[in-house]
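STRUCTURE:
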């Protein structure tokens, strides 16, 4: 037990992105579906923030698991369409918030109305409110 404890001192825990990519390598269906969906919006998954890169893979997985494919698809469509791939719009908190709106309002939430009402503000301005 002492040897194990000393060895584990220098091991860092895996990040969600690393776990996600390991699941991609293992060809797990859930992660492959999420990856294909993200790529269908001309975005990619990555370990760090960049233009057109989503690093909030844990949030994507949570939305997919909790609400399903269609909510994740609509969430991505609203975020990309509203803020046009702005780096700040591809964060976990924004995805989680938009997903909750999609679930709460369902078909009553019109894409064009959402873009019109929310899109005039940057994500940074919204997060300061």
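SEQUENCE:
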């Amino acid at each position: 037990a002492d040897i194990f404890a000393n060895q584990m001192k220098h091991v860092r825990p895996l990040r969600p992105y690393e776990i996600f990519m390991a699941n991609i390598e293992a060809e797990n269906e859930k992660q492959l579906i999420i990856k294909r969906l993200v790529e269908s919006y001309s975005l990619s998954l990555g370990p760090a923030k960049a233009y057109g890169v989503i690093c909030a893979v844990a949030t994507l997985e949570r939305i997919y698991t909790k609400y399903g494919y269609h909510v994740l698809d609509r969430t991505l469509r609203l975020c990309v369409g509203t803020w046009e791939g702005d780096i700040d719009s591809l964060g976990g908190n924004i995805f989680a918030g938009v997903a909750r709106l999609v679930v709460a309002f369902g078909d009553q939430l019109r894409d064009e109305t959402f873009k019109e009402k929310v899109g005039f503000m940057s994500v940074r301005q919204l997060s300061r409110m």
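REMARK: The mean pLDDT is 89.
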